[in-house]
Amino acid sequence: MTTPSSNTQSNTQGSFGAMLQQARKTKQVSLEEAAAELFILKRHLKALENENFADLPQAAFARGFAINYAKFLGLDPVKIASSFDAAYPNELKPYSVNNIDTPLRPMGTLQRDTHNRIRFNPLLIIAVIGVIILAIFLFRMVSNASKENTQAPTNAVEDISALEQAQGAAIDGETGVGAAGSALNIGAASSTATLEVMLSDEAVVVITDASGSNLMNGAQSTGSYKLSGMPPFNVQIDNVDNVSLMLNQEAVALEAYATDKQASFELAP
Asked: Which residue segments constitute the domains of the chain, with CATH numbers given?
């Protein structure tokens, strides 16, 4: 009569290594991720899945690894421990008891983490953050000063130009309304232009034409708006990322006029 070997007993009770491997794959966790979470060497987890006991530390530590691995994967740790005990080769048990160097080997995971750890000086981090904030503050100051020096005179000229074109002819002490009417009706059919404003989100848009009429003024909701008036148009937008503009069915590159997502410019065909 022959007696069943340890491998036969393990197969009878179920392969704990196969259960561990199947549970890990079902959970979609790699050996590297599991090793990092459990602080167990990758080669030890692989040895558990392959039931390669020669690559594991002594039985007590290897059994503890199997139980922790089972808990991490959501398996029954008691069942895994029982299967591990049944599958563990008898010839390795005396070696595990007498091998006093083996229990120290798993500490290699802690040494690995210590070597890879990067230590930061809190004062150095605070200093770097302070330098970044100061740089941003100085950049904004320079940008705002440049904007005031370059755009303020232009806006004044644009405002005067728009008023002169739309209302200059109306300032006539003798003709009065008649002069204003002639100024606004000259080539009315040919001098008007069409604007299409498309908003992907809420934004403040102010548009006036050369006659001083407010074609759009204030906060606007998402949608498409078609406007018609006498160019040039004075356009002000508070967030160009939410606005698209077309003049006579031709797209206008708002980013060319934007500063800090805000734009203020005069537009003509």
From this structure: 6-116 (1.10.260.40), 152-267 (no CATH)
